[in-house]
Amino acid sequence: MELSGGEILVECLKSEGVDTVFGYPGGAVLHIYDALFQQEEVQHVLVRHEQGAVHMADGFARATGKPGVVLVTSGPGATNAVTGIATAHMDSIPLVVFTGQVHSALIGNDAFQEVDNVGITRPCVKHNFMVKDVSEMAETIKKAFYVATTGRPGPVVVDIPKDVTDPKVKIPFEYPEKVAMRSYQPTEKGHSGQIRKAVDLIVNAERPMIYTGGGVVLGRAGDELTHFTQKLGYPITQTLMGLGAYPSSDKQHLGMLGMHGTYEANMGMHHCDVLIAIGARFDDRVTGDLSKFCPHAKIVHVDIDPSSISKNVVVDVPIVGAVKSVLTEMIELVNQAGGAKKTKALEAWWDQIEQWRGMKCLDYKWSDEIIKPQYVVQKLWEVTKGDAFVTSDVGQHQMWAAQYYGFNKPHRWINSGGLGTMGFGLPAALGAKWAHPDEEVACITGEGSIQMCSQELSTALQYNLPVKIVSLNNGYLGMVRQWQEFFYSGRYAMSYMESLPDFVKLAESYGHVGMRIEKPSDVEGALKEAFAMKDRLVFMDFQTDPEENVYPMVPAGAGLNEMILV
Amino acid sequence: MRHIISILMENEAGALSRVAGLFSARGYNIESLCVAPTHDESLSRLTLVTSGDEQVIEQIVKQLNKLIDVVKVQDMADTAHIERELMLVKLQAFDAVREEVYRLADIFRGQIIDVTESSYTVQLVGPGNKLDAFIDALGSIPVVEIVRSGALGISRGPRGMLVPEV
Ligand SMILES: Cc1ncc(C[n+]2csc(CCOP(=O)(O)OP(=O)(O)O)c2C)c(N)n1
Ligand SMILES: [Mg+2]
């Protein structure tokens, strides 16, 4: 079979089982679009801004575990995609992003719509390639998917000069069945000696703490984690990225840890004697002041990325390997050891934890007059039976979503944790809805964030993606305002937004349903009404308490035991 | 501490910028960096000199290994090794100074590779500290320019850096 570069690209996607490309056309990728147009297996979702395309593919990837695929043109198409690529990179999300490039002969000449895509994206991708000749196309794409989806996943950019997809140049096509790279061979299986050492430490712990992150979700090891944790009877806390891997409603779960984590989780971290870190990377929002971090603990760290280990915190038992495989071995050894040994000490530890839990750090002051944002999230949980896919933007609403929507399943909580990208929520929700048309998808957002990608409301209509937007409209860039209240004596520099649009009309003008909710007593009814409209996108503009803060909080530079509670 | 790190990389366009970019992005310092092809056309070998405490060096090695095009990384400090650097020094040399330069070059086993009425150019090979010592020894002799290659390192003994099988 003789095919052109554009046709080869499409055939490669089919071979990889890709059914959807999120993208936006332009001169450098017209040959590819022409090839896409002439077939039906691979669908294309036309976004309204390339950033939206990448976030959509990202939301699709997080909701399914499959790689997301993006196609954008050269120059501004590629630069618009960069924020999305960096977002995926920080959260280790597998994407393959095809960027158009100017004709090979023009590269380096400051040609029209030329930018150095490989250079610009280098620091925010797992890897990138330029396809220099059509004969390299199939192998490069094979490698791109392989690198994106194996080891610690991440985005891979494939830059394609226009001449490489020239329809007049056809070559025989065969998709390589296998790929082997001597320079890239991720470790799956953990070192068995280290695993034994770790389990010995674990079963003999007196004040153990399990701390897990996004690696458990990405590594599809939720079941193993649950089994491991319940067999040991140990307390567990999950990071912002890890939520859902272990069921939040289980009593062993202490909630999220870190800057806006629960009191019990952070105190548990501070006082534990053995810390079992799994698929988490000791981010600064999690550890607080490193010199005060887990001062009493021996630390076991399981991670697929060797460079995550002992990067911020030097650990005692490092284990490089896939979380699923290592946990499976650990469970075996824990069973052989007959589970936890220090049962007396463990009882005392749980007593202590229950005392901390008794502080009820997530309680908030109720109001009959003004809507409390936390309440909206709690009601959303009830109305969706805790089973929706929930995306968020970035700010206070993101923290309230994480704190008050108790996720019980992995892949359902979708947010930009690493880069903290405002504008992520809506396109990510559309990507999740595209992947799961029969599931409820909600986007918890703020009036600031939603305006960073609201153009995708148009995409939602075109492709009939009836997500539910829950906007916690406090009239402030709330998270910024909160920091200014705490640390800048209340000087609210540029954190208040005037001239907000009428979001109801905005939704309506895009062909959707808009609702404005002002009273606490209307919250539940509005949510029920919105979710009853199965095939409509509903934008719920909740007027929430403008000055509500996210509590508890570990101020930057403090230790995890130094929380502000209210 | 100062470390010489040897890297075997796929000989792809942009390989060097991946390494250089990694160092600037993560704030590691590079004292010197040499790149050249090897007897195996598909590979290029980079030798870089950096410094940092144990934890920093460990991270550097791990981050280098994480680059997809990097085939093998070796911290030369982990093995017995030989370090060599090439230096070319152009000096103003009149009258009595000519004799002095000649003598110094001899002591340091250097060679004078270019001569004019007013200058000498000396070539010197050795570990970095030997080259530094030569510069110190020049004292008040006026230097026109110094060109250094940056250090290269190779392990002692019969074995070379192993390229993993696929
Ligand atoms: C693209 C981008 N720009 C700036 C920021 C910094 N930032 C973090 S939270 C925040 C405020 C978000 O406001 P809003 O969406 O209304 O959410 P709220 O905090 O009020 O819930 C800002 C500006 C960011 N995270 N992302
Ligand atoms: Mg706001």
What would a concise description of this structure say?
The complex is a heterodimer of chains A (566) and B (166). With 566 residues, chain A is of the alpha/beta class.
State the main characteristics:
heterodimer, A: 566 residues, alpha/beta, six-stranded parallel beta sheet, 20 strands, B: 166 residues, alpha+beta, five-stranded antiparallel beta sheet, 4 helices, 9 strands, 29% helix, binds thiamine diphosphate, binds magnesium ion
Report on this model:
The complex is a heterodimer of chains A (566) and B (166). Chain A has helices at residues 5-15, 30-37, 50-64, 76-90, 117-121, 137-149, 192-203, 214-218, 222-232, 263-271, 284-287, 323-336, 343-357, 373-383, 396-404, 425-435, 456-462, 478-487, 503-509, 523-532; strands spanning 2-4, 20-23, 43-46, 68-72, 95-101, 127-130, 155-161, 170-172, 208-212, 236-238, 253-256, 274-278, 298-303, 317-320, 389-392, 413-414, 441-445, 468-473, 513-517, 538-543. Chain A is an alpha/beta fold and 566 residues long. In chain A, the strands form four sheets. A six-stranded parallel sheet of chain A has the order 3-2-4-5-7-6, with helices on both faces. Chain A has a six-stranded parallel sheet with strand order 11-10-9-12-13-14, sandwiched between helices. Chain A has a six-stranded parallel sheet with strand order 16-15-17-18-20-19, sandwiched between helices. In chain A, helix 17 links the parallel strand 17 and strand 18 (468-473). In chain A, helix 1 crosses helix 2 (30-37), helix 7 (192-203) packs across helix 12 and helix 14 (373-383) crosses helix 15. The mean pLDDT of chain A is 97. With 166 residues, chain B is of the alpha+beta class. Chain B is 29% helix and 39% strand. Chain B has four helices and nine strands, in the order βαββαββαββαββ. In chain B, a hairpin with a 5-residue loop joins strand 2 (32-37) and strand 3 (43-51). The mean pLDDT of chain B is 95. Chain A binds chain B through residues 118-119, 122-123, 126-127, 130, 147, 180-185, 305-307, 309-311, 314, and chain B through 9-10, 13-14, 17-18, 21, 25, 55, 58-59, 62-63, 65-66, 68-71, 163-166. The complex binds thiamine diphosphate and magnesium ion (MG). The site of magnesium ion (MG) has 8 residues of chain A, from loops.
